[in-house]
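for the record, two folds in this file. i put them one after another cuz i was lazy. first one right below, seq on top, structure tokens after. the second one comes after a little note so u can tell where it starts
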Amino acid sequence: MNTALSGSLPGSLHPTKAISFEDFRRLAIDPSLSEYERIGFPDDFRSGRDDEIFADIRYKLPALEETGRTILDIGPGCSRLPRILIDLCEENSHRLLMIDSEEMLEQLPERPFLTKVTGMFPDCPELLATLKGRTDLILCYSVLQCIMADMSVFRFLDLSLSLLAPGGRMLIGDVPNASKRRRFFASETGIRFHQAYTGTDDLPDVAFNRLGDTGAIDDAVVSAVLQRARLAGFDAYVMPQGPGLPMSNRREDILIVRP
């Protein structure tokens, strides 16, 4: 889920601020929005890109190719991407659990191996008790920035990691990093990208060594997540997105592994 909304989305949601869980509940049932706008993205950011995105996820979560795994998807939304995951889980006999608002989940298909949990993670004590130390894969894609709007990132991280089985992996994917974005737009490549996108000769507005937007994810937040996970006994890495992904020049992934 994205924090930058296009002009076609509800004007009540500020275009540069994080969207909360309650905001997404309203987006999910807005009949004027496309499936991508309902998860906070303009169509041109995501439409037609789901297969590329999922291929990158599969590379980082290789146990998806195995059989009989327990998988938790935190905040799947209602676009085509969670449907691709559902189809793969059916093919490989995985147990899949998805937690999101009722408004999002009711737009996804029902399957006997799929358990839908209504609510905001990690305010779900029964799910936490059921999956503690037993989850092979956790996917949390384009959601970290929304989590920051609602709760402590450390609380979210600690409870998520408590669910992982030995050898389990958590992918916190599609993390919008304001520091990475600044580095990109300060580069010659980024300047050309900006000018082509805007159709002008203007330079991007980039400044270093100053405080960024309050609440935005930057290098400090990413580093804190890595350090928190490592101090808790997990391996943690920052990984680039595949070059074909729509926002790979300003987003990255965090992969955490329980040894």
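(here's the note) second protein begins now
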Amino acid sequence: MDQITVSNITIDVIHKDIKNIHLAVYPPTGRVRIAAPLSVNDDAIRLFAISKLGWIKRHQREFDAQERISPREYKQRESHYFQGRRYLMKIIEKDEPPKVILRARSNIELYVRPNTSFEKRQEVITEWYRVELKKLIPGIIEKWEKSLNVNIDEWQVKQMKTNWGTCNIEKKRILINLELAKKPLHCLEYVILHEMVHLLERHHNERFLYYMDTFLPNWKQIRTELNNLPVSHADWEY
């Protein structure tokens, strides 16, 4: 991947087998990427970027103003999110195996042994998120397999710092970001559908957009919602 700098903005440049130049500004940091056809040279890309400077800076300002979630400490009355809802953590120390329980749609109870370390508390919560997310994914995949007339041979939940999801077209395998356990269910479904549509069209071209518009007409609104939700100290993008 190459880079250019325009007006003190660093832009990642990728040459791909596509017809048109695509520009994207990714949350939460405002990273800029241009995907250009193989035939387009660097001078043309630079002129394109200059013509879009106003658009780029406007989106970067929006991301700068986005709410951030500081690193979690897994302590009493700390905010945690699950399926788009905010919960307050309640630490309950008992000499028994650790577990997590949601209470009254407002509290998330973390049961741990006395003097449990930060690392162990984080591990327990992370594994709980993973288990809960894995309960949701199969039904969504099955729904869209029927609608799209495609088959997913394998799926995994993975902690990722660059994407909400990915698709390996050859292996018919999708990876779903563990962070989506914290987001609303319709955001999870949008990401899964997005990755499954890649089995019909590899690139983010007009054909891909046609499929998204056909199967999930409000996908752009959901994408905006997902990218505008409070983000953690890690970097996520889609």
